[in-house]
Amino acid sequence: MLWLRWASYSQEPMDIREIARRAKVSTATASRAINRVSTVDPQLAKRVWKVVDELGYYPNTQARALVSGRSRIFGLIVSEFTNPFFPEIVQTFENLAVGNNYEILLTSTVNDPRRMELSVRRMIERRVDGVAILTFGMEETLLEHLRFRSVPLVFVDVGPDVRGIANIRINYQNGIRQAVQHLAALRHTRIAFVAGPLHLKSALARQEAFKASMIEIGLPPELIVVGDHRLEGGMRALIEIGRLNTRPTAVLCSNDMTAIGVMRQAYDQKIKIPDDLSVVGFDDIRMAEFTMPPLTTVQMSQKDLAKIAFQALLNEVEGRSTSHERHEYELTTNLVLRLSTALAPAGRPSTTPPKRVGASRFRKVSTTVQSD
Amino acid sequence: MLWLRWASYSQEPMDIREIARRAKVSTATASRAINRVSTVDPQLAKRVWKVVDELGYYPNTQARALVSGRSRIFGLIVSEFTNPFFPEIVQTFENLAVGNNYEILLTSTVNDPRRMELSVRRMIERRVDGVAILTFGMEETLLEHLRFRSVPLVFVDVGPDVRGIANIRINYQNGIRQAVQHLAALRHTRIAFVAGPLHLKSALARQEAFKASMIEIGLPPELIVVGDHRLEGGMRALIEIGRLNTRPTAVLCSNDMTAIGVMRQAYDQKIKIPDDLSVVGFDDIRMAEFTMPPLTTVQMSQKDLAKIAFQALLNEVEGRSTSHERHEYELTTNLVLRLSTALAPAGRPSTTPPKRVGASRFRKVSTTVQSD
DNA sequence: CATAGCGTGGAAAACGTTTGCTCCTTTCAC
DNA sequence: GTGAAAGGAGCAAACGTTTTCCACGCTATG
Description:
The structure is a homodimer. Chain A has helices spanning 2-7, 16-23, 27-34, 42-55, 61-68, 87-99, 113-125, 140-148, 172-185, 201-217, 231-242, 256-268, 302-317, and strands at 73-78, 103-108, 130-134, 153-156, 166-171, 191-195, 224-226, 250-253, 278-283, 296-299, 328-332, 334-336. The first copy, chain A, is of the alpha/beta class. The longest helix of chain A has 17 residues, at 201-217.
């Protein structure tokens, strides 16, 4: 039994020196053998590996990081794990990390400035090799703490005003235009929009995209209600919409949770979806597929987002990013048709509805990232 | 501007020796001041802190861990982040970690033995102070690797066959009995059960609890269909149930995703919930509140689970666990009434339905854990 | 006034790696 | 046969902390 074999060593210091001693080589050679670096006589290497296996030796990462100056940790700062937008991102990010022999230090800010500061502090204290920031409202001074230590940084959607930092821009316009056109093709003319908290850049951008798309198509972008990107806001929004003089026949929401709130409120009020009201979401979180009916929504691929973020970090840290332009990435959004949209209550389609659009793609797909 | 002030130091080695030098004390004193350990002259301490703030010094955690022998990291191994059961757990766990000045090393196994091995390897390599294991099918030999290094371990629901390891037992019986009795009170006599993958201990335990509860109440526990704990399995299960000779009027599911699958299939088949069919889930994931109608389900509090796990780890590592019994914890389950259950199609209630049951509680609530 | 005792600061030894440098051995070419 | 070149192994110095041990000075006490 394995355990018994170990038991005999159990009190001894199981470090690389012990390995070297037993393999009758120097620690330098043992280290080189273990890391398969430089050339070491196959004979010796085999001896080292044998001892490593026998003793169940695991190198001490902190010592290694200390001397090598690289921790092989990427930080990932999100706002809240319970936000359904993140699980897929975190999972993809971790998969990539594992494939590239990195670890992730995951922290959440729960929208608390103090927690945000703690997050940054942790990142620095652990000397992470890079940080992906997927939360909003990072204070300038915190940022500087990281920049000062020249920690590679990737932001999502902060806009072009921060320089020298990799930035993933989201193309909201594309998906939202598709959504509006889709609804128009279904003869909807009174289309409402439930916005998110407008102090968030992303929420504001979505609203602007809605307005632009409506104008583009010749409809008035007037029916706008403000929600909170949560279920409750969606429910309230539909109540508010019900009070309007001109009742809309379709609702476009700033995110999926809002849309689910709208559907939930509709369910309570016996409003039939999609017969009486068409609903479109934004994000395409997992849950969107499971609602009843399944939600037509604008997909912002969380997988792709995670892939870009990781790749960007990897580029920085491996020093592959030389040109200035490489710091800008873009993620496009696309409409995903499901069953929450249908013909406007009193109408008939003039054109065939647009065909189903594939998953979003991003530029700068790398071939060096392993795993999925 | 802050940045400019830093700029002047930007090339220098900002370590504790630099701090000591500038504060004109020894590194020993600097360390003691920073860690507020032992007594150091307030005058000197103030000088040290002043320099720390000015330079924006952050201690190097790896060096600290190396010499102190404690990493202040807890490992958390889950199966998949995208499993809706985990977000709440991870969030709570992290909140507690932050409050107690710990970090978490989060890994997922995606049910891949290789990934599981990698997870364990990472935990050991980072010299974590403890590991909470929330995934199933951990191989015995991997376990021994951890035990050999006497890493404190907390398991969820492995049963009593592993000794010397903290273990959180789930009381499935309590909640499931409540669910069955609730349905019976609503005049349901034909109650079906959609089981999970029976090679999982937890799924098997739930099924056993169902059988026992049915027998207890004088009903035959015969209508059992096997699902997969995922949406698809639930959908398939309802189809299968539809083919049975004796059509059940209520379905109890082994987890919430299954229940949502059942509801989804019912939606497609125009079966009305709860009018035609009552549905009960298990777990009480976030989404259960958002389905249409909201799902009546057995709550297994993810928050409490995370709290227990964290507290158990803390007990181990702070050396507070002396008695043998302390290694066993229990989490009870309780029915949460929502709107997916109603009177059986052709019946009238004989008794008043049971009153709403509060959130689950666990033994050994600690008062030493800070934050939430 | 001398001495014991205590509290405080500093020098230096860890912690477990990687890695620059040196030295030795071997090989190969002339 | 001699020289240089190449390649592989080992010594020892880092990396940035904590912590042990010791010395010093101050206070209180006999």
